[in-house]
Fold this sequence. Notes:
By secondary structure, the protein is α/β, with parallel strands linked by helices. The protein is 37% helix and 14% strand. 4'-deoxy-4'-aminopyridoxal-5'-phosphate (PMP) binds at residues 67, 127-129, 132, 155-157, 168, 217, 222, 250, 252-253, 286, 296.
Amino acid sequence: xNAGLDNGGLDNAAQFERAQRVIPGGVNSPVRAFGSVxxxxxxxxxxxxxxxxxxxxxxxxxxxxxxxxxxxxxxxPEVVARVQEAAAKGLSFGASTPAETELAELVRERLVVxxxxxxxxxxxxxxxxxxxxxxxxxxxxxxxxxxxxxxxGHYHGHSDSLLAEAGSGLAxxxxxxxxxxxxxxAAQTLVLPYNDLAAVDAAFAEHGxxxxxxxxxxxxxxxxxxxxxxxxxxxxxxxxxxHGALMILDEVLTGFRAGRAGWWGLEATGExxxxxxxxxxxxxxxxxxxxxxxxxxxxxxxxxxxxxxxxGPVYQAGTLxxxxxxxxxGLATLRLADAAVxxxxxxxxxxxxxxASAALSAAGVTHSVQRAGTLFSIAFAEQPPRDxxxxxxxxxxxxxxxxxxxxxxxxxxxxxVFEAWFVMAAHDDVALERIVTALPxxxxxxxxx
Length: 449
Ligand code: PMP
């Protein structure tokens, strides 16, 4: 009985049919189309805590968490209340609000390690794509150089310069790049293998005086989770400095999720090995910082950030930048994300990754688990992939039956093997039990593939 559901009488399949007639591929972001796992994407109508509910009234334990933002859980009552209060006072002013400054201060404070924060100033934007696009424009403007270094399998949003050999949906759909990007733009991005310092040294030896910046996911999580080799991020900062280039640490996905102060915080405090002495020049944030609303940010050293308009010559703007509803959601989420939240997320990541691995082992499926703070994913490869080439070599075909068997049992995993599994503080023991109970069935389906 779907009475009261906002489905217009259509089930998931009919919704998808209808959507495809008016929306390209029926989706507003490609990975949602189930391209690599096949089958009918679910159309959701509501969410609460650990669960999402589809148009047919089926409830799923969710391990997508809106691709990261839902750190606490879906529709956290306190976050929703703060957004409702903000909405009642006005949806958008196109002018400054006190809450924007509060959010910038809160981000700066969250990242203080040993008395200093890598974020001295912060500019709010609406998407992670805008944040990284702004960061590279800023780096080019500040250095007066053109070239950009990125790593294969890393996804930094869909701006022209950053789509070469990107992860996320391009990995899922096995696309080397996007059509519609000029050859001139593509030629300004050097794509290197991840975790390969020799390749970085060689690129800087050859082009060092023309490189504006190296951009890197703080810990890669768009080709599955692939953590940096200890010392890799620190070495990038050192090499960039030696050549007068900047290091942009993309924490859109990892920020305030991998750990309290993001992946950088885990390295800076020595919680994970990597080096406590390095500081990125610029950082980008998204997802959790907006608490489920469209909000992202670029931050860093004040002298660099002051190159942005209106102080400096690097232009950047946004009608809805610092939107009051989005800022309210971000502030409420970060304030609620205390040490207990991260302890729970780590416990969940421990349990789910251990149980998934045990189920796959019992079914005789070759696999490895990779972990980056609270983030993890499973690769169908004996050795944990260290770069994109290795990530692509896994038995990815085993994921579709694994995914669909979980879905049939009411667990919503990311619809691609190249994505992280996102835990939420709202995953209680009941939710955990449903996940753990479903895993052996999914593992057997993967074995049969
Ligand atoms: N950087 C990283 C590391 C990301 O994971 C993403 C999105 N998954 C982005 C940038 C782009 O963010 P958005 O989708 O908000 O544009």
